[in-house]
Amino acid sequence: MAFAAACQAGTPVPPGERIISVAPNLTELLFAAGAAEQVVAVSEYSDFPEAAKKLPRIGDAFRLDYERIVALAPTVAVIWETGTPAGVAKRLEDLGIRVVGIDAGIWDRPVEMQLADLREGRARNTYMQGHRAAGEYGMCILEWLTNLDQLPHTGFVVCAFPVKLHRAGGAWVRAVALVKNAGAVQ
User: Fold this and answer.
1) Residue whose C-alpha is closest to residue 33's, from 50, 17, 10
2) Is 85 exposed, middle or buried (0-12, 13-18, 19+ CB in 10 A)?
3) Triad 152, 157, 158: Cα angle to 5°
């Protein structure tokens, strides 16, 4: 768990770790945390930052190439706690690889920490800064989606139907996946 603590504190990852990432969002987080030199393989669709495109691919969280993983001799596998299937974490541990879970439920620091800062008069301009940055760049953030394990690997489109609230700058959406099946959309 020294790895997770290092990422959270913004300090370098302990030297000698050989890290694999099983999801694109985790790859981006690893690079942002300064662990790029220790990342030895990434999941499919890990395309940011540019350097991630040059690393070996190990499949995706639902279909990992375990033989390739063993050949790369990683010491740490970073999984997404709310998105990686439990069986994947167990299999990686059974292979002798230390598994570190990151729960990226929101873009920002934990709400409890942000609220404590606000109560104590610290960091007033940093509250929910990830969300604010997303708004500045016109990005849409969809959080806390469920039943993602029910989707196929490819062949679907996600639609977000927003709920419009009076005098509000944001609200929740009803997210729906349209899945292609034998040429018809269900």
Assistant:
1) 10
2) middle
3) 100
Last residue of a domain, one of 102, 127, 159: 102
Q: What is the pLDDT of residues 4-55, one digit of tens each?
A: 333 333 444 567 899 999 988 888 888 877 789 999 999 998 988 999 999 9
The answer for residues whose C-beta is within 8 angstroms of residue 50's C-beta and 6 or more apart is none
Strand ranges in the chain using DSSP code E only, listed in sequence order: 19-21, 39-41, 59-60, 63-64, 76-80, 98-102, 156-162, 173-181, 184-185
97 and 159 co-located in one domain: no
* Helices H / strands E in the chain, number of each: 6, 9
Tell whether 88 and 152 lie within a shared domain: no
169 residue type, one letter: G
Q: Which residue ranges in the chain fall short of pLDDT 50?
A: 1-12, 182, 185-186
Contacts of 137 (CB under 8 A, 6+ apart): none
The pair of three-digit structure tokens given for residue 30, joined into one six-digit string = 């690893």
